[in-house]
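#help-structures

NK: newbie question. if I give both the sequence and a SMILES, will the prediction place the ligand too? trying with pyridoxal-5'-phosphate
OV: yes, paste both and it writes out the complex. here, I ran yours:
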Amino acid sequence: MCADNATRPPATSHRPPVATLRERDAQVIASIGRLRFSPLSLIGGRGNRLIEEGGRELLDLSASFGPAILGYSHPAIAAAVNAATASMAGASLLAFPNENAVALAERLLAITPGEGERRVWFGHSGSDANDCALRVVQAATGRSRFISFIGSYHGNLSGSMSVSGHTAMTHTLPRAGLVLLPYPDPYRPSFSAEEVLKLLDYQFATSCPPHQVAAIFIEPLMSDAGVIVPPKGFLAAVQQRCRRHGIQVIVDEVKAGLARSGRLHCFEHEALEPDLVVFGKGLGGGLPLSALIGPRAIMDHAPAFALQTTAGNPVATAAGLAVLRTIAAEDLSERAARVGQALAGALRALAPRQPMIGEVRGRGLAIGIELVSDRATREPVPVATTAKVIYRAWQLGAVLFYVGLRGNVLELTPPLTLTEAEAEHGVAIIDQALTDVGRGLVADADVAPFMMW
Ligand SMILES: *Cc1c(COP(=O)(O)O)cnc(C)c1O
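OV: that's the protein plus ligand as structure tokens.
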């Protein structure tokens, strides 16, 4: 103590400036686990707003990729989590059933269409649920090959990453035997739906005998590849071909599921009848929670096959129950359809005076704005331009991210509680940001640290 006093600087001397949260983040958080789209660093959240260091509130059009499905301080989640935390937060579903996990599994089975006897597995993230699906389907069917789509994102664990086809994941090799099919993109029709189906038939007839294939992973709306809505009937035709050969259809609802698309399940738009369904992100309302639903014959493959000590814990599953209850009570599917339509319509209305807007597309409150440097040729803008729009939107008070195989798609996945007034405010900010970036208001140096993938 005495030594401290002796070395303490006199009151008049200049103290070193206090490091900002952003600076401290850069010093300690590993790059391998971060994506930074703007200088935003957070000290709080309220409704559909994020509060940054310094106290400014920003409209959140991202829901932090989707988990903030009900915004950031929803009373239903806070109450459910507080009650569960005050009781038996540490209890493990591996060892004991708990009311919240069992009730959530019952609820998920009740709201998810499917045939025959089914079971639910809980995890912490979309990644672990897709990993679990891959491992258990392989073990239960005795088949070891999988099919997925170029551009798909199923997670960042060894298994889920190995069946992902996103261009940002090419640092890691796909698993042996994986067949990656193009996902037909109506705006950039390198491959039509018919051509992809023909390619699949050709694979089955030649180098990929269908009896070797355990399952296909399908995103019913491809999010990270650029919010791509598949051509009508395409996924149903893929499903039909897989069914013929006993190939399991695994539908990844992690991002577009649970009311975001304007229906409770995004696969309902595509007439899919999944064998297995994966939920994540919004399911936990911000708490780490994922779920895999599948046929009992697969999900009961072997005891002690997919164990995670805190998976299905009473706190995360309490949050999951609160999310599902709120979706039903507030009819958030209908709301996502309605507010999403208004939001997409208002964004489309900007196109005549915003030459960068190539297309606005999506379902419900999963909306993509594809930015082009030439509307006629559909040449994508450079990723730096997309990053500048995000940066300018942050300056103007809104939070959004970008996706796309060329990094040129603004992604809007706001909380489903977004109001119409907030949607309008968001459109005004995006409008202004596009104008300002077009005028060269944001410098390359501003966004150099924020071009992520
Ligand atoms: C985000 C995402 C995942 C992975 O979920 P994490 O919670 O990040 O592990 C899987 N599938 C899709 C479609 C996603 O968008």
